[in-house]
């Protein structure tokens, strides 16, 4: 089974055949100004409707990998495909609507929670109704009492859920999450995890999540990418992490 999953995920690209992957990454490479390879020929297929966890030692390139997927840095053309289309050929704002991102710490805009949730659609000239805002809040596990609160009245966990509702207002097909719960207490963490699992189940959302918590990955991910020194060294199911063969991966997992 592991081999099958690995074979599927790492299947060599055939031109014109996108095999149902939501995102395909091909030889994604990033070299720093000082000529250091931050990412080195990363290849992976991210199937539609899965939660993919990305783990690895600090500085291994996890955030850099994630940020390429919605062009927070510009990957080389021909290295990242969304539904078979090179993301470099897409309008960057519409790409970021389709591929939404949530960071470690939520940064809310001035104004109320409702203003925040309405922000994205408003940029496209669409005003969300109160009912639509309430629905998005509910989707992020926030009740209607949050509607008119300001950012300053919220805990970090609540603010993170507002940030999630704001991202969901853009109706993304993919969610990129960079350690979204590392600043949260266990209950807020569980709230976010529950929402993510629900988004996957109910909406077929594709989710790519960088996490330092192996336990979290084991709770919610369907597949795990292990990144070491800018390279994907293993792609495993969460319950097979102990079977990782790469020496650095083994050391990392033992220490985690
Ligand atoms: N724009 C950049 N220019 C130069 N070096 C960079 C740049 N972005 C990242 N790096 C370096 O690339 C390496 C990978 O960084 P990245 O933040 O992707 O790692 P990470 O695995 O997410 O780390 P962490 O777990 O600590 O957040 C680090 O050594 C970092 O200093």
UniProtKB/TrEMBL annotation:
UniProt keyword Nucleus present: no
Example GO molecular function: ATP binding
SUPFAM superfamilies xref list: P-loop containing nucleoside triphosphate hydrolases
UniProt KW keywords: ATP-binding, Nucleotide-binding, Transport
Matches recorded under InterPro entries: AAA+_ATPase, ABC_transporter-like_ATP-bd, ABC_transporter-like_CS, P-loop_NTPase, PstB-like
Transmembrane segments: none
PROSITE patterns, A to Z: ABC_TRANSPORTER_1, ABC_TRANSPORTER_2
PANTHER family: ABC TRANSPORTER I FAMILY MEMBER 17
Name of this chain's protein: ABC transporter I family member 17
Origin species: Sesamum alatum
Phylogenetic placement of the source organism: Eukaryota, Viridiplantae, Streptophyta, Embryophyta, Tracheophyta
